[in-house]
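[audit] Reproducing an earlier prediction to check determinism. Same input, same settings, fresh worker. If the tokens differ from the archived copy the diff job will pick it up downstream; this log only records the rerun itself.
[audit] input (390 residues):
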Amino acid sequence: MSPLAPLSLYLHWPFCGSKCPYCDFNSHVRPSVEENRWVEALLRNLSLWREREPDRRIATIFWGGGTPSLVSPAAVERVLAHIQGLWPLADDCEITLEANPTTHETDRFAALRAAGVNRLSLGVQSFEQADLDYLGRTYTVAEAERALAHIAETFPRFTFDMIYALPDHSLARWQEQLERALAHAGAHLSLYQLTFEPGTRFYQALQTGRMRPLDDDIAADLYAWTVERMAAAGLPQYEISNYARPGEESRHNLVYWHGGEWIGVGPGAHGRLGRGPDRRALANIRSPEKWRDDIEAGRQGLTDDEPVAGAEVGEELVMTGLRLASGIDRRRFANIAGYPLERTVPLPKQERLVAEKLAWSDPSGFGLTVGGRMLLDSAIRFLLADRTDG
């Protein structure tokens, strides 16, 4: 009997207490949320997916948002128990939930752990109150530090986010911030440079001249120092914005970056199923209420359930794989895409980036160097431009 194929689940809770000015996620502020009704919709949708994908073993579960830590621990336990009733879980199944360090949410940590969550991802973002205020965060530095102390006592695995390269950041200022983060860190940290995404308040301020981004050269210096400092701290970079002790990487996010299979459940959630010519792209209705109504009407809640064109499979694997320090595994690429890496990225292009010390290549893989990852978008444009598929 062949082993059950692994599958990951992404659950999306679309509600937040407030909308941060830099956030382009599918998150919404509502005066009130009917938790039980929303949980029922999630359960119903999961059951429909079980009918479509029965012979699976769940490798990872990630509950993001929005702010899923606003869901009651009892409801979290109910959802996780329902999943276990639908599919077997891998013995080492990673179950992550995102949280903010407000006192209200911190007081739920023990109950969330008892509900079955075994990895918490905390949105700290900064240890400077001025930065927290600028980023629209609704907690204090003291609350963040209390949450970190509590999380380390409660969860076997945890991570937290920081945002840097704000418009007024200097190298010295970020160095102080990161040292404070390392003092609280476990085995994983996510360190994101501030970006200005269309549709956000920060982007509007940028477009109207009310805000200016940090100078590119300073941002590059901050990034290069961060990679070096994190390696010295024993948490080397494994993805462009993620750092971990070897073996403590986010298993769920590696599913995305390695081109694995996952189902997205909830408003706006995306998924990928299958390999090669059977690869399918899935997307849920973005509007929370329209998604819920669709589920309650007995439907799947999807706007897209389409085959991924043969060339696009390889392109996606390049765009995600080059984010990783480990790069693209040639054998894995061929197993998923159904053709070799050279069909998507011709060998002369690989060789050119290697000659410019922006990439490395060997018989098993191809990836970008630290310098190459600093130019990720440009490198991908170069590698994927002017191709003919055959």
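[audit] rerun output stored. Observation attached for the diff report: The chain has a mean pLDDT of 96.
[audit] end
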